[in-house]
């Protein structure tokens, strides 16, 4: 595929690095030469120093032959304009990063397609949805639903209270367990497990299961004593904070601590009465305690500083808060945050890249996600008639090493997959693999 990325900022650069590893034909364009120099020398891609809204510049970048044009500059209007121009100059598909939630309403979708903008991506909204999923339960690190919740992925940090420690997975399998362990993060290593692997203390383990067996998993990981989340404190009144408060379930009480008085006024206009807005410095622990930090089950740090967010979550944990979430935009800090036992890490770049990456796949894929801590990806494929995945039982498919099928949804019902499972056309199949292996899996579904 020929892919042109307009904007060498954080999202564009990360996406270009990601895709260049797959040997795609990548062109990264930006009007700042300084941003492009290092990338041109160190990665297998071409850079073009030009404005994304220049017709001549787009022609020079080869937009007429582009399979995918992605505009991810910081300026929403520029992204929209670049996509309109690229589409009219021959790009087959366009994606624009936006900041206006109104554009995402379904009634506007056809309008933007007529203009030449095929897809819109709003990283702050995606991040907020991920935060809300992760704070629904204090004992999980990650929560993701497939087909409206028919199948669930949960990531859990294993403590001493777990009853599944040091038991080979093949032994667990003989007990007819109602879950599938699809990935294990151990230190800096990500394991797609086999039967002889075991779960160790402090592993982050990713399970797939159905809704009714979530209490069972909670029991075997020894976290029944963790309090349910009812009170949430958010540090920083960013756009992600606003969306998080809006998407949170009705039963959750939200408090947002924001240092800027003018921003606080704006927050009170944007949010309803279930969210309390507090004008103050979220780094002031005494203020947070005064505002009820010790009675809070979840603390979410969403300032513009990754370091501040990590330190704030550490302070909250010291005060007894079970669930902490930190926005960490510096990818190099994600591993450090995990080693410091920050509960959930949110990174807009990885979230945006997951959604854009989905658009590159030829198979019918409805979900792609990068597991933030683990060097692994998960994708939901819809099975076509006659595809290779339907020809044999799962154990005989010869899936590449480093991949596993975590579960499937058939006629709206979630099913945990075993080696003897026979996948059928129209099934939705959830596949886990080490990072950048999704393209190798794709051929089984075509």
From TrEMBL:
The lineage of its organism: Bacteria, Pseudomonadati, Bacteroidota, Bacteroidia, Bacteroidales. Pfam families: TrkA_C (PF02080), TrkA_N (PF02254). Residues 141-223, 366-446 form the RCK C-terminal domain. Residues 1-121, 229-346 form the RCK N-terminal domain. SUPFAM superfamilies: NAD(P)-binding Rossmann-fold domains, TrkA C-terminal domain-like. The keyword Transport applies. Gene3D superfamilies: NAD(P)-binding Rossmann-like Domain, Regulator of K+ conductance, C-terminal domain. This is Trk system potassium uptake protein TrkA. One of its GO terms (molecular function) is potassium ion transmembrane transporter activity. GO terms for cellular component: plasma membrane. Keywords: Ion transport, NAD, Potassium, Potassium transport, Transport.
């Amino acid at each position: 595929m020929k892919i042109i990325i307009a904007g060498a900022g954080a999202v564009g650069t990360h996406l270009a690095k990601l895709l260049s590893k797959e040997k795609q034909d990548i062109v990264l364009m930006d009007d700042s030469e300084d941003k492009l120099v290092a990338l041109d020398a160190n990665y297998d891609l071409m850079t073009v120093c030009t404005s994304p809204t220049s017709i001549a510049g787009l022609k020079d970048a080869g937009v007429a032959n582009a399979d995918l044009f992605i505009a991810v500059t910081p300026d929403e209007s520029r992204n929209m304009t670049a996509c309109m121009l690229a589409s009219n100059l021959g790009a087959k598909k366009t994606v624009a990063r936006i900041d206006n939630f109104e554009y995402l309403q379904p009634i506007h979708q056809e309008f933007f397609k007529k203009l030449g903008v095929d897809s819109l991506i709003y990283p702050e909204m995606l991040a907020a949805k991920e935060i809300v999923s992760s704070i629904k339960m204090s004992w999980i690190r990650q929560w993701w639903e497939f087909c409206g919740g028919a199948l669930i992925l949960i990531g859990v940090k294993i403590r001493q209270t777990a009853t599944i420690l040091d038991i080979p997975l093949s032994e667990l399998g003989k007990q007819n367990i109602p879950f599938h362990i699809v990935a294990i993060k151990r230190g800096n290593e990500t394991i797609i497990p086999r039967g002889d692997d075991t779960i160790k203390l402090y592993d982050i383990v990713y399970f797939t299961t159905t809704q009714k067996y979530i209490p069972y998993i909670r029991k075997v990981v020894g976290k029944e004593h963790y309090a349910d989340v009812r009170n949430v404190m958010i540090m920083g009144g960013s756009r992600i904070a606003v969306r998080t408060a809006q998407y949170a379930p009705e039963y959750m009480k939200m408090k947002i601590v924001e240092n800027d008085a003018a921003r606080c006024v704006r927050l009170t206009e944007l949010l309803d009465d279930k969210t309390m807005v507090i004008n103050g410095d979220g780094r002031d622990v005494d203020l947070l305690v005064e505002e009820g930090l010790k009675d809070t089950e979840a603390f979410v740090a969403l300032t513009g500083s990754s370091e501040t967010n990590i330190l704030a979550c550490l302070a909250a944990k010291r005060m007894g808060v079970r669930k902490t979430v930190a926005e960490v935009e510096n990818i190099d800090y994600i591993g450090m945050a995990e080693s410091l036992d920050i509960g959930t890490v949110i990174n807009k770049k990885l979230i945006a890249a997951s959604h854009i990456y989905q658009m590159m796949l030829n198979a019918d894929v409805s979900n792609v996600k990068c597991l933030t801590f683990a060097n692994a990806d998960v994708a939901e494929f819809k099975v076509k008639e006659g595809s290779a995945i339907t020809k044999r039982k799962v154990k005989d498919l010869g899936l590449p090493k480093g991949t596993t099928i975590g579960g499937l949804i058939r006629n709206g019902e979630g099913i945990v997959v075993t080696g003897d499972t026979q996948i059928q056309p129209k099934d939705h199949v959830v596949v886990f693999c080490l990072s950048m292996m999704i393209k190798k899996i794709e051929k089984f579904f075509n």
